[in-house]
Amino acid sequence: MSEVLLHVSGVSKRFGGLQALSDVNLRIARGMVYGLIGPNGAGKTTFFNVITGLYTPDSGTFELAGLAYKPTAVHEVARAGIARTFQNIRLFADMTALENVMVGRHIRSGSGLLGAIFRTPGFKFEEAAIARRAQDLLDYVGIGQLADYKARTLSYGDQRRLEIARALATEPQLLALDEPAAGMNATEKVELRALIERIRQDGVTVLLIEHDVKLVMGLCDGVTVLDYGRQIAEGTPAEVQKNEQVIEAYLGHAGAKAAAEATAI
C-alpha cells in the first residue's frame, strides 16, 4: 500500500452564517496526481486555503508524511512541505522571472538578516546558488529563455509556468495547483498536462483544483468531489464519473460522457 502523504480529517470552516466546509476528509498517497472538483461555490478553494494556511479551520486534523502540521500560517505550511499556486496569478509583476523564483527559494536559505545587510561572503555564495537553482527551475518548466523578462511582460500561460517554478523552488513534497489551466488554450493545456506528469515522475505529489473535467479525468489517479462544502464522492476517475450524485450535482450527463472519453485516453 502506498504511503499516505497528506491526510486531513474532519475539516470544517464557517464564515458567519455560511458553512463553507463540513467534515471534509482527504487522503493522498505519495506520488499521486489527485483532483479536487465540484461546482462553483462547492468549497474547493476554501479547502485549499485551509490546508495551505490562508484560512484557519474551525476543526480538523492535518498530517503531512505522518507528521502533524498546523495550517495557521502560509510560511509554516511551506516549510512543512506544501507549496501552492493561485487561481488568480500572484507574481511580483515588476520583478524578473528569475527574481520571482529566487523569492520562493529563499524559504530554504540559511543566511540571516545580518548577512543580507553586510553582504557577507556566505550570503553572496548562497545567493549565487539560489540564482542557479532558479534558472534550473525556469528551464524545467520551459521558460528558461525568459529569465530576465519582467513577470508582467510574460504571456498568461508563461505566467502560470512561472508560478509553478516559484512553488517548486520551495522543495515541496506536495504541490497544490488552483485552477492552473484557467485561461489556457488547447495547446497550453496539453503542455500543462505534460509538465504536471513530469513533476509527478520527479517525485512531487500534486493536488489539483480544476474545472476542466476532461483534464482532471485524464490526468488524475484519484478524485474527491465537493458540493456545498460537503464531500459527496471520492475514488478513481472511472468510479467518480459513474457516481449518480456527482452526475446530478456537477458533471451532468454530457459532462460524464466527456469525462469517460478523457479517462479512456
Which properties best describe this structure?
265 residues; alpha/beta; Rossmann fold; 2 domains; four-stranded antiparallel sheet; 10 helices; globular
Report on this structure.
With 265 residues, the protein is α/β, with parallel strands linked by helices. The chain has 2 domains: 1-81 and 173-265, P-loop containing nucleotide triphosphate hydrolases (Rossmann fold, 3-Layer(aba) Sandwich); 91-171, no CATH class. The chain is built from 10 helices and 10 strands. The strands form 2 sheets. A 6-stranded mixed beta sheet has the order 6-7-8-3-9-10, with helices on both faces. A 4-stranded antiparallel beta sheet has the order 2-1-4-5, covered by helices on one side. Strand 1 (4-15) and strand 2 form a beta hairpin. Helix 3 (97-105) crosses helix 5 and helix 3 runs parallel beside helix 6. The chain starts with a strand and ends with a helix.
How do the helices and strands line up, and which of them pair or pack?
Layout: E1 4-15, E2 18-29, E3 33-37, H1 44-51, E4 59-64, E5 67-68, H2 74-80, E6 82-84, H3 97-105, H4 113-118, H5 121-141, H6 156-168, E7 174-178, H7 186-201, E8 205-209, H8 213-219, E9 222-227, E10 230-235, H9 237-240, H10 244-264
Parallel strand pairs: 3-8, 3-9, 6-7, 7-8
Antiparallel strand pairs: 1-2, 1-4, 4-5, 9-10
Helix pairs in contact: 3-5, 3-6, 5-6, 8-10
CATH architecture classification name of the largest domain: 3-Layer(aba) Sandwich
Give me the secondary-structure category.
Answer: alpha/beta
CATH superfamily annotation of the largest domain: P-loop containing nucleotide triphosphate hydrolases
H and E order: EEEHEEHEHHHHEHEHEEHH
What share of residues are in beta strands?
A: 15-25%
Rounded to the nearest angstrom, the distance between the terminal CA atoms is: 26 Å
Backbone CA Rg: 19 Å
CATH class of the largest domain: Alpha Beta
Enumerate how many helices there are, as a single number: 10
- Count of discrete structural domains: 2
Strands, count? 10
Low-confidence stretches: none
Determine the oligomeric state from the structure: single chain
Under CATH, the topology of the largest domain is which? Rossmann fold
Average pLDDT reading: 88
